[in-house]
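dude i think i finally got it to work??
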Amino acid sequence: MNTSIFILFCIIPDYLINTSIGNENLEIFPILISPNPGREQLRIDLGAQLGACLIEFYDIGGKLIVSQQIRGNANVMNTSALPSGAYVYKVSNAIGFAESGKWVKE
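look at this
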């Protein structure tokens, strides 16, 4: 019996794609953080399937700067008090989902 395995690699900005071999399900976990770079406010939109999440921002030295619970679309975070620079963000939830990225404050 011949079995063909196809691996699809897609680059879709601001989307996380989770697949597994032997499973025909394709899950897309949208996390949209905008604007990037930003100034006074940051908007965070999550896919509904992620449920309640925690977003954390770290400075380049790894120090936790801000942490906030978020859920669903249109989460707005006031970033006016943050100094200009690059930050690493981490989005995680209670069932083990975690993703990180970079955000720049102008």
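The chain is about 0% helix and 55% strand.
im so relieved honestly
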